[in-house]
Each structure stands twice: as C-alpha cells, then as structure tokens.
Design brief:
451 residues, alpha/beta, Gfo/Idh/MocA-like_OxRdtase_N, NAD(P)-bd_dom_sf
Length: 451
C-alpha cells in the first residue's frame, strides 16, 4: 500500500502529504462516515467569497455535513469554521482532500488550482488509507483503519466551481481521471438551478410557448472588478459570459453550431492594455444552434442600477420573460416617480442564493441516491469551449464554427491512438450538412479517455 501511495505522489496526481497528515500532529477525533447513512461528509477548499457562498448553501442542505475547510490564509478558514460550526480548519487544501472522513469536496479555490485538486480528490482514496494507518499506528485489523480503507478507495466526489480547468486539455484530463477513479464530478453552473430560469426551461420543455424561436439573455454586473482580478482571469467570456453561454445551451436544448462575438472596453480603461478578451468589459454574442434557432447575449461589467439578470424566450405561441429580482416588493408612487423602492439585488451572492442551495442539494442527492449529477464535467467542458470560441470570434471579427475548435481538440491529445479515436468521433458527430454536434463529440471524446 505504501508503494501504491508513493507512486501516486511521484506521478504528480497527488501532492506530497504534509507532516501533520502523516501523524506528526495530535490525532483528531474521527467523524463517522455518513454517505451510507443518507448524508455526506463535506470538505471545502477555499474560504474566499465563493467558498462562503457555498458554505451558506450547505448550511441549508440537510443531507450535507461540512466538517473541514481550508484556506491559504488560515485566519479566513478559522473564521469560516467558527461561523458555520465546522469542527476543523486548515491552511492546506491537501488536508481537506486526504481527510479520512471527507466523502465529497467542494472546490472553491482560484481557477488555476482546480484541475490539480480534482485529480487529487479522485486519487485520494489510496493516500487517505495510508495517512489513516500512519496516524492510528494500529495493525490492519484495527476497526478504524478497516473502516478508513473500505471507505477511502472510492476516492472523493467533487463539486467544482467553474471552470474545471483553465485550458481544454487539462479539463479533458480531469474529467477522464474522475471516470477512471469512479468518482462523481459536478460543474457548478448555478443559474441552471435558479427558480426563474428553471421556470423558463419548464415552459420550453412543456411547449407552453410553442417552439422556441429566439432567446435573449442579458447579464450585467453592478461594478467592474479590480484590475488584479481581471488580469490573468481568462477574460470576459471565460469569467463572466460563460454562465450565459451555458444558459443559452441549457434553455435551447440543442448544441451550438457557430458563434459571433464582439468585445470592447467601455467602462474600465485600465484593462485596455491586457491581452485578448481580458481587455473587454462589454460584449455582444450571437450563437446559432443545430436546431436552426439563435440566441443573443449581451454582457457588461457595469450597470449603475444594480445586478441585471434578465431572460426572454420568444416562442411560436407565446413569450416568457424573467425580470430582475428585488430585495422586496415595495414600490414608490409619486408625482415624478413610479417604481420599485429599492434597486435590484446587488450581486450574484444575494441574487442566486436559492440557486446555490438548490445545486448543492442536487449534488448531494446524486451522491446519496446514486444518480447522475445534474451538471456534468462535460457540461463544464462545453461551456469552456463556447467561451473560447466567443473570444476567438471577437478577436478575429468573424463567425467561428465549433467544428474548428473540435479539430483543435483532436490535435491536443497526447497519444496517437487517442488522436485517431478523436478524429473518428469528430467524423461521427457531424450531421448531413457537415455541422458538428458539439455535445455528442465531447461525450465521445471523454469516453475514449476512460468513461
């Protein structure tokens, strides 16, 4: 067992354990494993803004039992643990991943760490057994060690904030590794679980508006983020519009075929010198789908009237619209003004509070009940591909067909046999007109890697 764990560390799939994890710190009180009992022991990586949002959501999830949180700034992890009554906190993400009682990990760290941490979670079973044995110092017949070994070999299930990885190659590898280790991976695209968008989806599915003709999405932040956030953050399409691109695909229930995007800097002139889509704070997108329909999206980093999140779907029989949400329904009526007393919710933390709770409940239910996750790694990959295509379109000022990027995906694969399989998948995923079914292609691409 030691050799197996050592080889994992050497391969880079699992980071080397810290001295504390190897039993050099006082032993912690072990928490009874919960998944078989209908609840899930959860570890959280990241106590920043989004980590706290997810902790708040987990607090409303009866089947989730958060037990440890990590953050490089330990004081933040300590404060979060105290506020939400978690028994443990740490400055090391690997202590969360390799905790013997953690069954699922919420990855809320910066994007550049996601792929590495996903692989570490999926491989954590073998290493967790080693660490538990080292801490316990009992022979293999020890009931605690036996419990740890039987539970840990399945690896840790993963709920990952978007993106799974910053690049396509790393995303594919992370998804495939999870399939190989038989762990569930969910991409956190919370708008799918928002009651308003869910109602729009239901109206489309139930044909309440007839057949959809066109979709319009509007997404505008209340204020631009700091320069330091934008620099190296992947740009407007990957960081912000990716949610709208995913929502357009989700609502249309058809795969995108081509995309046209334009981007500009209208708000924060300090970012104009940044490379590629990082220099944009405003963008417009048109996306064509395999069913012949179109979606239009406008995004902007600033709306002085609040967080603007609207959707409109025109159908052959009717139209359905979702408007902005407000903290209350109070309205003022005077000689010179009639309208809401307050501005819309100020940002995503409050606007999508219900959605964050719903997606956490959905993932935990998938674990407890053995169901597929409702927003898969493949969904995350397709969202990333759409964002990359939008960036290419804006930079080159032209329509981009998704078949172009899919050809590039084939070239990204490391092994020659996989390249050949990829090209077969590419050919089989085209329709009679030559347009690519992106969802089918990605599914085939992932399956070749271990699905």
């Amino acid at each position: 067992m030691l050799c197996a764990a050592t080889s994992l560390v050497a391969s880079g799939l699992v980071l080397a354990p810290t001295p504390a994890l190897l039993g050099m710190a006082p032993p912690r009180a072990l928490v009874q494993m919960k998944l078989s009992e209908g609840t899930v022991n959860v570890g959280i990586i990241g106590a920043g803004r989004i980590g706290i949002v997810h902790l708040e959501a987990l607090a409303s999830c009866a089947k989730a039992n958060p037990i440890i949180i990590s953050n490089p700034t330990v004081a933040k992890a300590q404060a979060a643990a105290a506020k939400f009554k978690l028994p443990e906190f740490t400055g090391d993400a690997m202590e969360v991943i390799n905790h013997p009682d953690v069954e699922a990990v919420w990855i809320c760290s910066p994007s550049q760490f996601h792929a590495e941490q996903i692989k570490a979670c999926a491989a954590a079973g073998v290493l967790s057994f080693l660490l538990l044995r080292e801490r316990c110092h009992h022979p293999i017949a020890c009931p605690i060690c036996s419990r740890g070994s039987s539970a840990s070999f399945s690896g840790k299930h993963i709920f990952c904030e978007k993106p799974i990885a910053t690049g396509v190659q790393e995303t594919i590898e992370a998804i495939n590794f999870c399939y190989e280790k038989n762990v569930k991976l969910m991409t956190a695209l919370q708008r799918r679980f928002d009651p308003n968008f869910a109602r729009v989806k239901l109206a489309i599915t139930n044909k309440e508006i007839g057949e959809p003709i066109t979709i319009k999405l509007c997404s505008r932040d209340p204020a631009p983020p700091p320069f330091e956030y934008v620099k190296g953050g992947g740009g407007l399409f990957k960081d912000m519009a990716v949610h709208d691109l995913d929502m357009a695909r989700f609502l249309m229930d058809s795969e995108p075929v081509s995309i046209l995007a334009s981007g500009s800097c209208q708000i924060d002139k300090s970012i104009e010198s940044l490379p590629g889509p990082e220099a944009y704070d405003t963008a417009n997108i048109i996306m064509k789908f395999a069913n012949g329909k179109e979606a239009t999206i406008d995004v902007c980093r600033q709306a002085p009237y609040g967080y603007d999140q609207r959707a409109e779907v025109l159908g052959t029989k009717a139209m359905i619209v979702t408007d902005n949400m407000y903290p209350n329904t109070a309205r003022i009526m005077s000689a010179d003004f009639t309208g809401n007393a307050d501005l819309p919710y100020d940002f995503f933390m409050s606007r999508y509070k219900e959605a964050y709770i719903a997606e956490s409940i959905a993932f935990v239910d998938a674990l407890v009940e053995g169901k597929p996750v409702p927003c898969s790694g493949e969904d995350g990959l397709i969202a990333l591909v759409m964002a990359i295509a939008a960036g290419t379109s804006a930079q080159e000022r032209r329509w981009v067909n998704f078949s172009e990027l899919s050809e590039e995906l084939c070239g990204l694969q490391n092994s020659i046999p996989l390249q050949q399989e990829c090209r077969v998948a590419y050919e089989e995923s085209q329709d009679t007109s030559g347009a690519l079914d992106l969802g089918k292609f990605v599914g085939r691409l992932i399956s070749f890697g271990g699905k």
